[in-house]
Specification:
Length: about 140
């Protein structure tokens, strides 16, 4: 496997993640104007839900990008990094739109979290396998 000097595939997904972050932040800001809540959720259920849409995204984004970058730097296939990157973006979009619609369990929300966790598990295992081959063999 040829190693890239820089993690360009990860950089691409970091760019998409950044744009998604701005989109979700804009949805929170819009809800703040609608609810007239400048800090916290003001007891407004919609404001609370929209804040969680953004917060849930933020809780996973950094970890996934670090895993993708480390995979790429350590020589994982670009196909794997792309598959995980696409999976993460799709998962976060599905979760965000599902949760933005309703606080109830729904296919977007459930599928989004399952796919997000699957991306983390696959990336983590792949990274452990790659690194173990380099440090234990």
């Amino acid at each position: 496997m040829a190693m890239s000097a820089l993690p360009f595939v990860t950089a691409f997904y970091a760019g998409l993640t950044g744009l998604l972050c701005v989109l979700l932040a804009a949805l929170v800001i819009r809800q703040r104007f609608r609810s007239r809540v400048s800090l916290g959720d003001g007891g407004d259920a919609d404001m609370s839900r929209m804040s969680r849409v953004f917060g849930n995204f933020a809780e996973y984004a950094a970890l996934v990008l670090v895993l993708l970058a480390l995979l790429e730097i350590c020589g994982a296939s670009r196909v794997l990094v792309h598959a995980l990157g696409i999976g993460f973006i799709v998962a976060r979009l599905a979760h965000a739109f599902g949760l933005a619609r309703t606080a109830d369990t729904n296919p977007g929300r459930a599928g989004g979290i399952v796919l997000t966790l699957l991306v983390i598990v696959v990336a983590s295992i792949a990274l452990l396998v790659i690194v173990a081959r380099k440090i234990f063999v």
